[in-house]
């Protein structure tokens, strides 16, 4: 090639547009989405393996209900210390430590009953392991909210929180058929082995790649400014020293702080609505597959695929709710309207689960369950609302408090359903109980009042 041709080629290369670069915040969101998918696969693994495990180890229906609820007992109790740890040490370190520990506990379930074990001992061991799983997973969703607060401007945060929140539906859609097939072909123990391998791989990836927006080497100055100027709290997890901006000031967790947090009407509305939303979630990730086996007579292999249908629509509804909310904001609607309108419409649709009691058609029942879960997905904007209203000085503590109240439903719902099914011999009362929570969520939205960020008075 001649010098003139080389020079021309160089000029052409200079004029050629650069390849579009995926913003780093979207890769961060993809990572927490994948981790949350595995997180929910871990906590819902017993819903698919429950019938097989129950038959293998000899559990009663009530014992299985208590085992289903064990996760939430510890998950709720550990929320507040988990949130405090996040505010003290940041999401990167706490999330990594949490992920390793919950993966170890998940893997340990595969060893229960390998040697002949009395039923009561097996129940106790699995109950304790599920308690530990709940404790170790407790920082996960507050950490997701903290990452979204730091990495996303306000106008994108509804979509961001909807995406990581929709991972719970995607987890069921993806893993229910896989876990059903593995249980059918190889036995329930291998489900927990698979989840253990995935968890350790994700922990290594998180530690190697994750950082704060200010310090992440992949973040361009333009992206950083877009996040910062749009309301992202970019220094929420910035380390002290090293020339970086100071760490976000944290409120002292004293009596005055607690009074201000728990006196906020908006937060009590969030607590109540999140409890109601999670009641539907816990029905689907605990008793729904058992209902299909015991109440509708489906095989375990069929259940894995049927259980995925509501989850797929829940995933779509979750994304739709977040995109609708952010779209309303861009069109000039108030933050209150943008968050509440999709929430109210979605939770009204969720009450359709009660209509399953009015038909014997399995096809229609699955269709109604799918509609209910789709509506629940649209209405599940609690995490977006929390990131909108939480004071930055105690953002993770407030998120953890919301998650604690919300996941109290994981204690109540599995136990109530276990007792009602054993007492009545059917799921009729249980389905009305779950449907009523769609209306309870509307009460929470009314209590919430206008959505705006809470500010602390000087202590």
TrEMBL record:
CDD domains: MFS_ExuT_GudP_like. Residues 28-453 form the Major facilitator superfamily (MFS) profile domain. The chain crosses the membrane at residues 22-41, 61-82, 94-115, 121-141, 162-182, 188-207, 275-293, 305-325, 337-355, 361-385, 397-417, 429-451. The keyword Membrane applies. It is found in: Cell membrane. Keywords: Cell membrane, Membrane, Transmembrane, Transmembrane helix. One of its GO terms (molecular function) is transmembrane transporter activity. GO terms for cellular component: plasma membrane. InterPro entries: MFS, MFS_dom, MFS_Na/Anion_cotransporter, MFS_trans_sf, Sugar_P_transporter. It is a multi-pass membrane protein. It comes from the Bacteria. This is D-galactonate transporter. It comes from Saccharopolyspora gloriosae.
């Amino acid at each position: 090639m001649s010098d003139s041709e080389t020079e021309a080629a160089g000029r052409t290369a200079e004029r050629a547009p650069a390849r579009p670069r995926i913003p780093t915040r979207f890769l961060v969101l993809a990572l927490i989405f994948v981790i949350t998918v595995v997180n929910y696969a871990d906590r819902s693994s017993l819903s698919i393996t429950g019938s097989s495990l129950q038959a293998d180890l000899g559990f009663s229906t009530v014992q299985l209900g208590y085992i289903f609820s064990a996760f939430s007992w510890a998950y709720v109790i550990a929320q507040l210390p988990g949130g405090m740890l996040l505010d003290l040490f940041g999401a990167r370190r706490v999330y990594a430590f949490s992920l390793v520990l919950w993966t170890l506990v998940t893997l340990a379930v595969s060893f229960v009953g390998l040697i002949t074990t009395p039923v009561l001992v097996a129940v106790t061991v699995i109950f304790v392991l599920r308690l530990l799983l709940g404790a170790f997973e407790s920082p996960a969703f507050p950490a997701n909210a903290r990452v979204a607060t730091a990495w996303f401007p306000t106008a994108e945060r509804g979509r961001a929180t909807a995406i990581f929140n929709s991972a719970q539906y995607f987890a069921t859609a993806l893993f229910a058929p896989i876990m059903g097939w593995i249980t059918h072909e190889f036995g329930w123990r291998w489900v927990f082995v698979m989840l253990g391998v995935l968890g350790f791989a994700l922990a290594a990836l998180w530690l190697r790649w994750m950082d704060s927006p200010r310090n992440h080497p992949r973040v361009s100055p333009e992206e950083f400014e877009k996040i910062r100027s749009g309301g992202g709290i970019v220094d929420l997890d910035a380390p002290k020293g090293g020339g970086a901006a100071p760490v976000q000031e944290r409120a002292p967790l004293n009596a005055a702080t607690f009074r201000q947090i728990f006196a906020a009407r908006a937060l009590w509305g969030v607590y109540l609505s999140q409890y109601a939303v999670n009641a539907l979630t816990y029905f689907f990730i605990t008793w729904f597959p058992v209902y299909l086996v015991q109440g509708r007579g489906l095989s375990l292999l069929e259940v894995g695929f049927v259980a995925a249908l509501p989850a797929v629509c829940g995933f779509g509804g979750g994304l739709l709710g977040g995109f609708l909310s952010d779209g309303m904001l861009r069109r000039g609607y108030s933050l209150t309207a943008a968050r509440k309108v999709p929430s109210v419409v979605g939770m009204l649709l969720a009450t359709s689960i009660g209509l399953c009691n009015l038909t014997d058609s399995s096809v229609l029942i699955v269709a109604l369950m799918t509609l209910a879960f789709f509506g629940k997905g649209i209405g599940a904007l609690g995490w977006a609302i929390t990131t909108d209203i939480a004071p930055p000085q105690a953002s993770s503590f407030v998120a953890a408090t919301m998650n604690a109240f919300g996941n109290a439903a994981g204690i109540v719902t599995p136990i109530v359903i276990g007792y009602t099914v054993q007492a009545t011999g059917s799921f009729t009362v249980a389905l009305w109980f779950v449907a009523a929570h769609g209306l309870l969520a509307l009460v929470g939205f009314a209590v919430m009042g206008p959505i705006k960020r809470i500010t602390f008075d000087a202590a």
